[in-house]
Amino acid sequence: MKQNPINSMQVKQLNTELLKSVLKREKYCTKPDLAKRSGLSISTCGNILKELLETQEVIEIALNESTGGRPARLFMFNENFSSVATLYARKEKNQVTLSCAVSNLLGVPIFETTLSFDDIGIREIKTAITLLLTQYPNIKVVGLGLPAVIHNGEVGYSDFSQLADLPIVKILEEQFSIQVIAENDVNATAMGYHKRNHLSSEDHIAYLYYPKFGNAGSGLIVHGQILHGSQNFAGEVSFLPLGIPLDQQGELQKDLDGFSRFVTQTVQSINCVINPSTLILSGLCFSPEMKDQIQMKLQESVGVPHRPNLVFEEDIHENYLYGLTMIALEKLSCSIQIIERI
Question: d(Cα 34, Cα 227) in Å, to the nearest integer?
């Protein structure tokens, strides 16, 4: 099937995004610097800069020192031109929280808070978003993380029963007139880990999260992208046929030998399917004794050449918020990609 060539407007979008990415990376540049680092002509850079200066996405800063003649103009990306909000709902033991953050366009948090509730439904999420928009009206995208299967903006199976079967993205976008993305909790956390550790597209990872006395979920990053599956069900490892019913998996954490065997079987299952270079186990349930048991069982059952590097993390918070932030920022970027044919 013949693909339509990109048009002049799309080329302009790509060039604009390229210019902004150079400024984000280099902090500030002259026009010749931008042309050199982007590969665009000086005239193209000048035309794009003119528009970005008018919208204030780029600002001009103090003139560079000159060795004679007209001083060079310096340009800087305006990281505070707009912002993104991230919220994630979490149920850990007897605590139900909604962690909220606002970050600038470089992904740096400028506000964070955690709200506690008896339960979380659409009303609580709307309340939190209203609070954030009141304080930061330049929010352009909201990234929402949920322990749920989310497909086409609609929540399916979820740890929060009030959110099940809701077209949550549509509801929130109509309410607040801003872009909203909704992502599974461990998918976002896995992406955050991948980005924060500056891993390459060849570094496939699996991130397994075990809430205290809850059911596990996993996020899979393959070629730098979240592996969602056809209906966003990929990674729902609590449904693996390992002989432990859903309603008994959380309680199994009290059994050192039984739980370590269960986790080992889950790790083996994932390894046989995507063979990640790194597999992260995260959760408050992993005591030093539990870690030793899992390591020992993996060494006994899986050949060393095929075993992923195993990493333990106590909590998901930092990677979770960062992953949601990166996903939200991508929503503000040009959606066109040029893929090299092989």
Answer: 35
pLDDT in tens, 210-226: 999 999 999 999 999 99
Element (H, E) at 307: none
10 Å Cβ neighbour count for 309? 10
- 108-123 core/surface letters (b: 16 or more CB in 10 A; e: else): eeeeeeebeeeebebe
What is the C-alpha separation between 183 and 65, in angstroms, rounded? 47
Name the DSSP letter for residue 67.
S
**Closest by alpha carbon to 286, among 278, 277, 295?**
295
Domains in the chain (CATH in brackets) are 8-77 (1.10.10.10), 83-188+320-332 (3.30.420.40), 196-318 (3.30.420.40)
Tokens 């991948």 belong to residue: 194
Q: Is the pTM of this model over 0.85?
A: yes
What residues does 89 pair with on adjacent strands? 98
Angstrom distance (rounded) from CA 24 to CA 323: 18
Amino acid (1-letter code) at residue 289 = E
